[in-house]
């Protein structure tokens, strides 16, 4: 631990992330050069590098390269020093870790029952830096791998927060929150994260060496395969919604049973398909997903890639520890949802579609944008679209199967509005990425679609409250969505009245 790794000087080897160990550190401007890499959140890492002019106190608390005692022959001195070194490196990995002060406050608030608003808010802000630490440890492992496998690892642990929160919510019977968080995470990655990658990557790589406009490129095999998989995931949501409407005249129990059977069968197929996709991408057709060597990478000759700071075992321990802490905070946050919704100031759909994706995708979003600015679009695509595929083909079906095992009626039947929003988003992204090229204009278009989808949630909440008061519903202005809800309400009232007429 503490050894430096450097890249080979050639661009092709740099793209494949093949590292070789060296005995010396390259120091520039008082810190190790990392090719302009940043930590998961909030720009350059605040990690401080060694200086011979610093005292022992500074070395013990802030020097992440030389912690006194790590090389001691005495195990009672060496192992505590190494544990402190890992803790120090992790805490100093990002300025966002200042929010870790909310972790003990959130846990105490949940244990002492300070009130739903305080418990939810404190644990909400506690999970944000924990997600950043999780992302930091993930990058320490992923940087030792290639772009394809590294993107897969980043996307997997990038979804860990949503998975933990969803498992806790599913155990508590909050199925609406689980479904909304899954869809919100997909839309966030598919539209906002991918759109910002295209936008920022296109702006910072707008022109070539001759001053002409240029586009960023990514592996065509990745684009074609991901488009097909996202279309399939959209179909897996549309079919249960269509079946629900076809069975509109059936009894509620019969409809729910039919949707459960269809969802569980579809979940098994999606899980098998995801395993087949991994085998296809990582083994048999690996060359389709490997980024091609590019002559204009935007890297200086002396510029180095980000080098791992933690060893693989240390990073693994951090992953496990942070995952356990996130599960505790998520448990308190989910337990406060019902009381928070009862206040009438927020809905479960808003929590799932907007708040939970913000907690889970913040670090992932910044990571994808950073690599897109560096013109590594394959890695950015692996984090953004790859994350959406994993949620749609792995996490959501796995939650359906987990609900089956625990007796919770988790299905793939989402609300009609949510299903339409997801299908349209997949359509937009499919037409955007199928050519294997991107620019800032396409990024602006894709990211723009995210805001109407998420911005309509408060409108939907407002109209739901209006429909709960029949006498006042006609006295309010309403949007197009509200008009549709009102028409359905009037139709139900007229049908109910006609059914009681004689003859």
Key descriptive features of the protein:
503 residues, transmembrane helix, 2 domains, disordered C terminus, mainly alpha, two-stranded antiparallel sheet, CaH_exchang, 17 helices, single chain, Vacuolar calcium ion transporter, A middle domain of Talin 1
Q: What is the topology?
A:
Layout: E1 5-7, H1 11-15, E2 19-21, E3 27-28, E4 31-32, H2 56-61, H3 75-91, H4 102-112, H5 116-142, H6 147-158, H7 160-171, H8 175-204, E5 216-217, H9 220-246, H10 252-284, H11 312-335, H12 337-342, H13 348-373, H14 377-406, H15 416-433, E6 437-438, H16 440-467, H17 480-499
Antiparallel strand pairs: 1-2, 3-4, 5-6
Helix pairs in contact: 4-5, 4-11, 5-6, 5-11, 5-13, 6-14, 7-8, 7-11, 7-13, 7-14, 8-13, 8-14, 8-15, 8-16, 9-10, 9-14, 9-15, 10-14, 13-14, 13-16, 15-16, 16-17
């Amino acid at each position: 631990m503490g050894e430096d790794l450097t890249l080979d000087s050639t661009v092709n080897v740099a793209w494949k992330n093949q590292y070789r160990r060296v005995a010396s550190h390259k120091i520039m401007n008082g810190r190790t050069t990392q090719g302009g890499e940043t930590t998961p959140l909030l720009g350059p890492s605040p990690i401080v590098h060694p200086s011979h002019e610093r005292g022992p106190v500074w070395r013990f608390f802030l020097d992440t390269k030389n912690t006194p005692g790590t090389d001691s022959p005495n195990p009672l001195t060496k192992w505590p020093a190494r544990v402190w070194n890992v803790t120090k490196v992790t805490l100093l990995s990002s300025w966002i870790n200042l929010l870790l002060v909310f972790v003990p406050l959130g846990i105490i608030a949940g244990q002492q029952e300070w009130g739903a608003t305080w418990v939810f808010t404190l644990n909400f802000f506690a999970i944000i830096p924990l997600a950043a630490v999780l992302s930091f440890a993930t990058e320490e492992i992923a940087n030792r791998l290639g772009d394809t496998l590294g993107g897969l690892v980043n996307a997997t642990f990038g979804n860990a927060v949503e998975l933990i929160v969803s498992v806790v919510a599913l155990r508590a019977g909050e199925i609406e929150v689980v479904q909304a968080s899954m869809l919100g995470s997909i839309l966030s990655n598919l539209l906002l994260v991918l759109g910002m990658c295209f936008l920022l990557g296109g702006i910072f790589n707008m022109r070539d060496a001759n001053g002409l406009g240029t586009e960023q490129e990514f592996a065509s095999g990745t684009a074609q395969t991901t488009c097909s998989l996202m279309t399939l995931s959209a179909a897996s949501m549309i079919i249960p919604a269509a079946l629900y409407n076809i069975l509109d005249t059936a009894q509620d129990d019969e409809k729910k049973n039919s949707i459960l059977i269809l969802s569980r069968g579809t979940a098994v197929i999606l899980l098998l398909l995801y395993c087949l996709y991994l085998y296809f991408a990582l083994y048999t057709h690996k060359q389709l997903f490997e980024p091609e060597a590019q002559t204009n990478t935007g890297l200086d000759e002396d510029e180095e890639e980000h080098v791992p700071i933690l060893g693989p075992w240390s990073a693994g321990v951090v992953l496990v520890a942070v995952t356990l802490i996130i599960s505790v905070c998520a448990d308190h946050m989910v337990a406060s949802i019902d009381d928070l919704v009862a206040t009438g100031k927020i809905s479960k759909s808003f929590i799932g579609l907007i708040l939970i994706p913000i907690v889970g995708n913040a670090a992932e979003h910044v990571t994808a944008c950073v690599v897109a600015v560096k013109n590594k679009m394959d890695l950015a695509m692996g984090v953004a679209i790859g994350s959406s595929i994993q949620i749609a083909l792995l996490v959501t079906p796995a939650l359906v199967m987990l609900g089956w095992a625990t007796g919770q009626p988790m299905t793939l039947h989402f609300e009609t509005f949510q299903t339409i929003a997801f299908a349209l988003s997949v359509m937009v992204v499919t037409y955007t990425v199928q050519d294997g090229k991107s620019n800032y204009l396409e990024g602006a278009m894709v990211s723009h679609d995210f805001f109407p989808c998420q911005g309509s949630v408060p409108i939907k909440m407002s109209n739901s409250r209006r429909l709960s008061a029949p006498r006042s519903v006609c006295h309010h202005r309403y949007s197009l969505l509200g008009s549709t809800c009102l028409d359905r309400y009037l139709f139900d009232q007229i049908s109910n009245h006609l059914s009681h007429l004689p003859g």
